[in-house]
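Aim 2 progress update. The chain analyzed this quarter is reproduced below.
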Amino acid sequence: MSYQKVSIDQLQPGSYVVQVLEQSGELEIKHAGWVRTRQAIRALKDKGVRVVAIDPAKQLLTTPPNSKITTSEKPEPAAFRAIFADEQPKAERCLEQTKLTQQHILQAAAKAEPVDLTLIHEVSAGLSDSVSRNPDVLLCLTRIANQSDQLLQHSINCAVYMAAFARFLNFPKHKITALITAALLHDVGKAQNPALLKQADAAAISTSLAVLQQSTALAGSISLWISQHCAYLDGTGSPAIKQQQIDNGSRMLAIVNLYEQLSSQQQGYSNPISVVKQLLAMAPDKLDNDYLQLFIKCIGIYPPGTVVKLTTGRLALVLENNLKKPTQPKVKVFYHSLHHHHIPAKILDLSRQQEEQIEACVDLKTYNLEPQNYL
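Predicted C-alpha cells:
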C-alpha cells in the first residue's frame, strides 16, 4: 500500500492517519487512527503536528449517505448564462491553455520531474469559470475535438466533464477546482510509464500517486480521489474497498472516467445513448446511482457536440441541453441526409416547434463530414 504524505493544513476529516512525519513541541504523537472532525485536526495542529502520512484506501464518509449531494459550504451563486456564440471564443482559449499546460505536465511526469501544480490550478480555475458562464460550450467543443494524443485528450475531456458535473451540483468554486485538478491528474503516471496505457486503469494508480507525491502543494483530497477512482461500490474494483469507504469525489471521478473512455473517438464512433446504457447497467452495484443519474442529467441525453438526424432527414449538431425537456435540445441544422447536400445553417430550438424532432444519433464520418466544420 502506498501512503500519502499531507500537511496538517491539507488533512481532511475522514482520513486515516498512519503516522506523524513531522512535529514540533514536546508531546510526541505516534499512534495511528481516524481523523473524524475538523476539531480533531485543529487539536493535532495545536500539539505541533505538521505533516502526516495517510492511507488513501481508508476513508470515512463525513456526511450521511442521503446528504452526499449537498454541501454545508456556501455554493457558488447562479451566474447569468452566456450566449453560446459569446462564450465560444473564451472556451476555445481556455481549452487551448489547458492543452498546453497538460502537455507540459505530462512531459514533466515522463521525465520524472516535479509537477507544477500552480499551472494546473490556474487552468482548473479557468475551466470552472467557463462552465459557470455556459457549460454546454465546453462540452460541445470537447466532444467534437480531434483526438490525436489519447492520454492528453482523455485527461482534458475528463476535466471538462468534471467541471460541468461539479458546477451542476452547485459545489463551491474551490471544490470544483479541486475536482477538475483530480480529473486532469488521475492518469499522470501513464506518462511516466507508457506501458501502463495498455493496462487496466488501476495499474497506473500507484505510479500516478508517486509522481504527485513530489509536489508539496497537492491537497490530500485530490490524491484520495485519484487513489479510489477505480474502486467499485461492491468491492470488486481497485482498491478492494466498498460503499462508505469510497469518498464522494472518488465516485464522481469514476463515473467521469468511464464515461469518457466509453465515448472516446479512439475506439471509433460511440452512440451516446448506448454509452449511458452501459453505465446504467453498472449501477447501483458498482457505480453510485444517484451521482450517475445527476451526471446524465448534466450532460444531457444528447450531449452538446452530438450529431443527430431529425425526423425530416436534416442533420444537426446539438449545441445546448434543455434541462426541462432533455429530448428537445437546441441544435444547429446544416445538412440533408436524404438529398446529400448542405443546407443553410440555422439554429433551432426543438422545444419551441413541433415540425421535427430527433430521430437518432449519427456518425457524421459516414457522410465524410467532420462536425468541427459546422460549429
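The chain is about 40% helix and 15% strand. Residues 62-67 have pLDDT under 50 and may be disordered. These observations will guide the mutagenesis experiments scheduled for the next reporting period.
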